Amino acid sequence: MTSFSFLLFLASLALYMLAAAAYLVFFFKEQTEVRQKARQLFMTAFTVQALGFAARYCTGGYTPIATVHETLSFFAWGLGCCYLTLCWRFSVKNLGVFVSLLVLLLMLGAALASRDLILPSPTLQSVWLPIHASLSLLAYSFLALAGIGGLMYLLQERTIKRKQFGLLYSRLPSLEALDKLNHHSLSVGFALLTLGMITGSLWAKQAHGAYWSWNPTETWALASWLLYAGLFHQRFTVGWRGRRAAWFSLVALALAIFTFWGVAVLFAGYHGQF
Question: CA-CA distance, 129 to 120, in Å (whole number)?
Fold first, then answer.
């Protein structure tokens, strides 16, 4: 029997699909009412998904950020949260198109994964689970925004260099706006990633008696953090901007995604043993 929480998940998935379609229509038609409808659909999907998390928590009795289905779904929700928060502070033209498509992709991945409720093992049942997992996934959400900004920057820069002042040029934000997006997202994302590393170490100490055990997930997480630390240093100390920062953001995001998803698939470790 389909659970109530999964029905809410399916409802949010359908709403995200409609939002992504509306954002795409706005990208080509630039009708204000379509953009407003797209944002309304996106915010409704975001709210319904949050209710789905609450329902799953009530059903399973644990914070639903443990299985592949749950983490992909929360990643999508976190990305939506970061985007909506950003909308109140910055105006980045057509960012919603790219964000909604990535959120939809993550939701489709979550829909294909097993939705079984699997309690974490007794040694891992701790208050650190929701703290560490939510901080890490929100960090990846902000860093994904930095990566999206980097991709948009490279696309816009390419159109300018080739003097192709057509549809793509007129629909993408200015290079300055995209650089500010990268700056803000990297700052918040790196801070959250650092807190995620610290809370993960505290959780490991409580569960296994050691702050660090050099398992594959921890090792690759450290590599990802060091790469972002290098980008953060170059960005704020040396003054990296523009194309170089955009490329670096995309490379760092690829490594972060591998840490988040690829390591769990390729290697065994307690991060995957829930």
Answer: 9
